[in-house]
Amino acid sequence: MKDYLSRQPYLDLLKSIIANQCGNPSGYSFAIDGEWGCGKTWILTELENQLLEDSEHKYLIFHYNVWENDFYEEPLVAILSVMIECLKKHKTNVKEKDSAKKVVTSSITALTKVAGTIIENKWKINPNDIVEAVKDSGKAIGNIKLTKSDFNNMLPLESALKQIKDVITKLSKELHILIIIDELDRCLPEYAIKVLERLHHICNEIPVIQILAINKKNLAESICKVFGKTFSEKENINAWQELFADKYLQKFVDVVIPLPNGKLENKLDILNGLENNFTPYIKTNNSGQELIKLDENYLANFISKLMNGVERRLQEKIFKQVLLCHKIALQSVVEFEKEQITYAILIYEIISCICRYIFRTATCKLEIHDDRYQLNFYRWTNGTRNPEKTENKLLNDNLGDLLSTSVGYSDTPNHKKLAFEITDTTTYLMAFFYRQEARSYDPLQNALWDWIEGDKVFLKKYDEIMDILVAK
User: Fold this and answer.
1) Ramachandran assignment for 299, one of left (phi > 0), alpha (psi -120 to 50 degrees), beta (any other)
2) What is the pTM of this model?
3) Distance, C-alpha 66 to centroid of its chain
């Protein structure tokens, strides 16, 4: 996978920690801390790929996506399923004469027996179906949902944990064992805590490296909620929650490593190729000077500033939605010529998508604030905040900073009539969200407005399709 955010140095740091701790007989655990959508899953997936390519070490990696496997009330069953599936895949890649082959085979048998005891004794289901049910249906086997009570009635929890621990200990004599725990912060608080407890009992004091992806702030809130910890000092509540969570996490995690935001070497990489469907647009005025300059550099800076601070995962959703809607619109408006598909069209489509897909509004508003025209997704009035839109206030502020301009006054008596004219690239982009009511005396202005009206024929269809795609 392409490293758009130049995070290889961070990956190298993680690999160094792993290589250093592989021989630790007591095991080691560290967490990657980052906000939702910052790329933790990408880091874990790329880390796993690079480790498995390492010929100097023999890694066995159990990749446990907690959120995808939270349909069991008892997470130990999901953990077993993930381990069995991973061992089966690993077995196919191990050479017959490899000393690990026998250990892997016996481990599959032992873990399947533990899982089979849980399932088969009560419901008479083939233990091998456990793995297939998890992999194929994403649901419990049939209508069965295992609870902690069911688990304890069939097989003492302590006994199961001990057997799993024994299997992993034997595996660790032949292979370096890593357990990757992803999407922990997307689960319900009680379930996340239960997962941490189970893994601690399995991996404690054996040579296993655990790597957790967490959002420490959200996890701190979950931990406090589960243990009934409330703090009255409102101004310091986050600090108190984090302090309590740090103390609790100490028995599970040796060190927490923050995930940096990363930096795009090529700002257009943020679009992941979307820009290739559009063309630059340069327009001169009557004096031959550049009036509109929509080149790659302008587009890169515009998108970078618009998306500044926005989670990468949300950005990807927006750009995928734009591409899908753009392609459908092109098929619907056959008379729209290729040279008309400029970066201005792309910028409009992205803004329109954010309106409809994120803010659930029909269009942006070009409004006058303190003698300035400003484009906003929504407006805050009299200090009132819309709770559905507050979360994405950053996008609104970024757009307002990018697309605003001083109000121009006409030469009518008392200068009461406000005029909006296209004077540069910024006003040209803003004009797509403005309806000109009167013709200008300037032929160039009229031509620019006519071209925009022509583009709006296509963009109207784009908006209609977008409304259909995002309709609830």
Assistant:
1) alpha
2) 0.64
3) 16
Q: Work out the widest C-alpha separation in the chain, in whole angstroms.
A: 95
Nearest to 150 by CA among 126, 114, 121, 125: 121
pLDDT in tens, 266-322: 677 778 889 999 999 999 887 888 899 999 999 999 998 898 878 777 888 899 999
Backbone angles phi, psi at 172, to 5 degrees: -70, -15
Using a 10 angstrom Cβ sphere, with 0-12 exposed, 13-18 middle and 19 or more buried, the burial of residue 67 is: middle
Residue 262 is predicted with a pLDDT of 66
pLDDT at 332 exceeding the cut of 70 = yes
Question: Which letter, b or e, does each residue of 127-137 get, where b requires 16 or more Cβ atoms within 10 Å of its Cβ?
Answer: beebbebbeee
407, 385, 406, 409: which is closest to 396 by C-alpha? 385
Distance CA 247, CA 450 (A): 65
Q: What whole-number distance in Å separates Cα of residue 384 and Cα of residue 40?
A: 35
Structure tokens at 76: 């130990």
CA dist 296 and 278 (Å) reads 10
Please check whether residue 143 is in contact with residue 90, taking contact to mean a CB–CB distance below 8 angstroms: no
Distances (CA, A) of 414 to 154, 163, 307, 386, 469: 88, 88, 41, 38, 48
At 462, list the tokens.
């784009």
* Strands of 201-325, DSSP E: 208-214, 255-258, 281-284, 290-294
Nearest to 157 by CA among 198, 191, 188: 198
Q: Strand 28-33 relative to strand 255-258: parallel, antiparallel, unpaired?
A: parallel
CA distance 412 to 416: 7
Residue (of 340, 18, 63) closest to 184 by Cα position: 63
Type of residue numbered 428? Y
Q: What is the DSSP letter of 342?
A: B
What is the side-by-side order of every strand in the sheet holding 176-182?
A: 59-65, 176-182, 208-214, 28-33, 255-258
Indicate the SS3 state at residue 120. Answer: helix
